[in-house]
Amino acid sequence: MAKAKAQKGSGGAAQSHRHLRARIAYLHQASLFLQSASVSTPTKPATSAHIQNSSSNHHIKESNEPCNVPGPATAQGNIGTPNHQDVPRVPVSKLARQFASQLRGVSRKSQIRLSIDIKRSVCKRCDSLLLPNSTCVETVENASRGGKKPWADVRVVRCNSCGYQKRYPQTGKRSLKLAERKKIANDQEMADQPPAATIASTTLPIASKTQPATSNQADVVITG
Q1: pLDDT digits (tens, 9 = 90+) for 56-75
Q2: Can you list the positions of beta strands (E) in 85-217?
Q3: pTM check: above 0.70
Protein backbone atom coordinates (compact mmCIF):
# COMPACT_ATOMS: atom_id res chain seq x y z
CA MET A 1 0.00 0.00 0.00
CA ALA A 2 1.16 3.50 -0.76
CA LYS A 3 1.97 5.91 2.03
CA ALA A 4 -0.69 8.43 2.89
CA LYS A 5 0.54 11.89 2.06
CA ALA A 6 0.37 14.54 4.75
CA GLN A 7 -2.19 17.22 4.02
CA LYS A 8 -0.80 20.69 3.49
CA GLY A 9 -1.82 23.38 5.92
CA SER A 10 -3.33 20.96 8.45
CA GLY A 11 -0.17 20.28 10.49
CA GLY A 12 0.39 16.85 8.95
CA ALA A 13 4.20 17.02 9.15
CA ALA A 14 4.12 18.05 12.80
CA GLN A 15 1.69 15.24 13.61
CA SER A 16 3.89 12.65 11.87
CA HIS A 17 7.01 13.68 13.86
CA ARG A 18 5.25 13.77 17.23
CA HIS A 19 6.57 10.35 18.32
CA LEU A 20 10.12 11.34 17.31
CA ARG A 21 9.96 14.55 19.32
CA ALA A 22 8.65 12.58 22.30
CA ARG A 23 11.54 10.13 21.95
CA ILE A 24 14.09 12.97 21.81
CA ALA A 25 12.60 14.55 24.94
CA TYR A 26 12.64 11.20 26.76
CA LEU A 27 16.27 10.49 25.85
CA HIS A 28 17.35 13.94 27.04
CA GLN A 29 15.51 13.59 30.36
CA ALA A 30 16.90 10.08 30.90
CA SER A 31 20.49 11.12 30.20
CA LEU A 32 20.11 14.16 32.46
CA PHE A 33 18.73 12.01 35.28
CA LEU A 34 21.50 9.42 35.02
CA GLN A 35 24.25 12.05 34.88
CA SER A 36 22.80 13.99 37.83
CA ALA A 37 22.64 10.74 39.82
CA SER A 38 26.32 10.07 39.15
CA VAL A 39 27.18 13.67 40.10
CA SER A 40 25.37 13.36 43.44
CA THR A 41 27.58 10.37 44.40
CA PRO A 42 31.12 11.35 43.33
CA THR A 43 33.98 8.91 43.80
CA LYS A 44 37.06 9.91 45.76
CA PRO A 45 40.56 8.76 44.86
CA ALA A 46 42.62 6.73 47.27
CA THR A 47 44.38 8.84 49.89
CA SER A 48 47.99 8.59 50.97
CA ALA A 49 46.97 7.11 54.35
CA HIS A 50 45.27 4.14 52.69
CA ILE A 51 48.27 3.61 50.44
CA GLN A 52 50.63 3.62 53.43
CA ASN A 53 48.47 1.13 55.34
CA SER A 54 48.32 -1.23 52.38
CA SER A 55 52.06 -1.01 51.76
CA SER A 56 52.87 -1.78 55.40
CA ASN A 57 51.10 -5.15 55.19
CA HIS A 58 53.25 -6.35 52.27
CA HIS A 59 56.95 -6.56 51.64
CA ILE A 60 58.45 -3.61 49.83
CA LYS A 61 59.94 -4.70 46.52
CA GLU A 62 62.55 -2.79 44.58
CA SER A 63 61.21 -1.52 41.26
CA ASN A 64 61.34 1.50 39.00
CA GLU A 65 58.05 2.84 40.43
CA PRO A 66 58.24 4.94 43.63
CA CYS A 67 57.25 3.14 46.83
CA ASN A 68 54.97 4.68 49.47
CA VAL A 69 57.11 4.28 52.59
CA PRO A 70 55.70 6.01 55.69
CA GLY A 71 57.88 8.86 56.81
CA PRO A 72 57.89 12.61 57.27
CA ALA A 73 59.56 13.34 53.93
CA THR A 74 57.19 11.21 51.88
CA ALA A 75 54.16 12.48 53.79
CA GLN A 76 55.02 16.06 52.94
CA GLY A 77 55.63 15.11 49.31
CA ASN A 78 52.26 13.36 49.04
CA ILE A 79 50.45 16.40 50.38
CA GLY A 80 52.01 18.64 47.76
CA THR A 81 51.26 16.38 44.76
CA PRO A 82 47.84 16.77 43.15
CA ASN A 83 47.37 12.99 42.75
CA HIS A 84 46.89 12.48 46.48
CA GLN A 85 44.47 15.31 47.21
CA ASP A 86 40.99 14.46 48.47
CA VAL A 87 39.22 16.07 45.53
CA PRO A 88 35.91 14.48 44.49
CA ARG A 89 36.02 13.19 40.92
CA VAL A 90 32.79 13.46 38.95
CA PRO A 91 32.39 10.37 36.77
CA VAL A 92 30.65 10.45 33.42
CA SER A 93 27.79 7.99 33.17
CA LYS A 94 28.27 5.70 30.18
CA LEU A 95 24.54 5.07 29.92
CA ALA A 96 23.84 8.81 29.91
CA ARG A 97 26.43 9.22 27.16
CA GLN A 98 24.77 6.46 25.13
CA PHE A 99 21.35 8.10 25.49
CA ALA A 100 22.80 11.44 24.38
CA SER A 101 24.36 9.77 21.34
CA GLN A 102 21.01 8.20 20.44
CA LEU A 103 19.36 11.60 20.87
CA ARG A 104 21.67 13.18 18.31
CA GLY A 105 21.24 10.22 15.97
CA VAL A 106 17.44 10.47 16.02
CA SER A 107 17.54 14.21 15.33
CA ARG A 108 19.92 13.73 12.40
CA LYS A 109 18.04 10.87 10.75
CA SER A 110 14.64 12.50 11.15
CA GLN A 111 16.04 15.97 10.27
CA ILE A 112 14.39 17.51 13.33
CA ARG A 113 16.06 20.68 14.56
CA LEU A 114 16.99 20.48 18.24
CA SER A 115 16.42 23.38 20.58
CA ILE A 116 19.41 25.49 21.52
CA ASP A 117 19.39 24.33 25.15
CA ILE A 118 19.42 20.63 24.24
CA LYS A 119 21.95 21.07 21.44
CA ARG A 120 24.44 22.95 23.62
CA SER A 121 24.09 20.53 26.55
CA VAL A 122 25.73 17.63 24.64
CA CYS A 123 29.42 17.46 23.73
CA LYS A 124 29.91 17.13 19.98
CA ARG A 125 33.03 14.96 20.30
CA CYS A 126 32.30 12.43 23.07
CA ASP A 127 28.49 12.85 23.49
CA SER A 128 28.85 13.60 27.20
CA LEU A 129 26.15 15.60 28.94
CA LEU A 130 27.62 18.99 29.86
CA LEU A 131 26.73 20.15 33.37
CA PRO A 132 28.45 23.30 34.67
CA ASN A 133 31.02 22.79 37.45
CA SER A 134 30.70 18.99 37.21
CA THR A 135 31.30 17.62 33.71
CA CYS A 136 32.35 20.87 32.04
CA VAL A 137 33.97 24.19 32.89
CA GLU A 138 32.51 27.50 31.69
CA THR A 139 34.58 30.66 31.37
CA VAL A 140 34.04 34.06 29.76
CA GLU A 141 36.81 35.48 27.59
CA ASN A 142 37.17 38.97 26.16
CA ALA A 143 39.90 39.41 23.55
CA SER A 144 39.50 43.18 23.34
CA ARG A 145 42.17 45.48 24.75
CA GLY A 146 41.67 45.57 28.48
CA GLY A 147 38.30 43.84 28.11
CA LYS A 148 36.59 47.20 27.60
CA LYS A 149 34.22 46.03 24.84
CA PRO A 150 31.27 44.22 26.42
CA TRP A 151 30.03 42.94 23.05
CA ALA A 152 33.29 40.99 22.63
CA ASP A 153 32.49 38.57 25.47
CA VAL A 154 32.74 34.91 24.47
CA ARG A 155 31.53 32.04 26.65
CA VAL A 156 33.90 29.07 26.46
CA VAL A 157 32.62 25.63 27.48
CA ARG A 158 35.30 22.94 27.94
CA CYS A 159 34.36 19.28 28.34
CA ASN A 160 36.20 17.55 31.19
CA SER A 161 36.08 14.15 29.46
CA CYS A 162 37.69 14.90 26.08
CA GLY A 163 38.84 18.51 26.46
CA TYR A 164 36.75 19.75 23.53
CA GLN A 165 36.02 23.49 23.66
CA LYS A 166 33.05 25.30 22.23
CA ARG A 167 32.83 29.10 22.00
CA TYR A 168 29.56 31.05 22.06
CA PRO A 169 29.60 34.82 21.41
CA GLN A 170 27.59 36.70 24.03
CA THR A 171 26.14 39.35 21.72
CA GLY A 172 22.72 40.77 22.46
CA LYS A 173 21.86 41.95 18.93
CA ARG A 174 21.31 39.07 16.55
CA SER A 175 19.41 38.82 13.29
CA LEU A 176 16.07 37.06 13.46
CA LYS A 177 15.43 33.78 11.72
CA LEU A 178 13.67 33.66 8.36
CA ALA A 179 10.44 32.27 9.82
CA GLU A 180 10.33 35.03 12.44
CA ARG A 181 10.98 37.73 9.82
CA LYS A 182 8.16 36.37 7.63
CA LYS A 183 5.80 36.32 10.59
CA ILE A 184 6.58 39.95 11.45
CA ALA A 185 6.09 40.99 7.80
CA ASN A 186 2.71 39.22 7.63
CA ASP A 187 1.59 40.87 10.86
CA GLN A 188 2.52 44.29 9.49
CA GLU A 189 0.61 43.62 6.25
CA MET A 190 -2.49 42.57 8.18
CA ALA A 191 -2.24 45.70 10.33
CA ASP A 192 -1.90 47.98 7.29
CA GLN A 193 -4.95 46.54 5.51
CA PRO A 194 -8.30 48.28 6.29
CA PRO A 195 -10.98 46.20 8.00
CA ALA A 196 -13.72 44.46 5.98
CA ALA A 197 -16.52 46.73 7.33
CA THR A 198 -14.97 49.87 5.84
CA ILE A 199 -14.50 48.15 2.46
CA ALA A 200 -18.19 47.12 2.36
CA SER A 201 -19.37 50.63 3.29
CA THR A 202 -17.36 52.18 0.43
CA THR A 203 -18.72 49.76 -2.19
CA LEU A 204 -22.43 50.00 -1.27
CA PRO A 205 -23.10 53.56 -2.65
CA ILE A 206 -21.56 52.62 -5.99
CA ALA A 207 -23.90 49.65 -6.34
CA SER A 208 -26.97 51.79 -5.50
CA LYS A 209 -26.09 54.33 -8.21
CA THR A 210 -25.63 51.72 -10.90
CA GLN A 211 -28.93 49.90 -10.28
CA PRO A 212 -31.26 52.73 -11.55
CA ALA A 213 -29.16 53.11 -14.69
CA THR A 214 -29.61 49.46 -15.58
CA SER A 215 -33.39 49.68 -15.03
CA ASN A 216 -33.71 52.73 -17.36
CA GLN A 217 -31.79 50.95 -20.07
CA ALA A 218 -34.16 48.01 -19.81
CA ASP A 219 -37.20 50.33 -20.21
CA VAL A 220 -35.73 51.92 -23.31
CA VAL A 221 -35.19 48.56 -24.92
CA ILE A 222 -38.77 47.46 -24.20
CA THR A 223 -40.36 50.65 -25.59
CA GLY A 224 -38.22 50.63 -28.68
Answers
A1: 444 444 444 444 544 444 43
A2: 136-142, 153-159, 165-169
A3: no
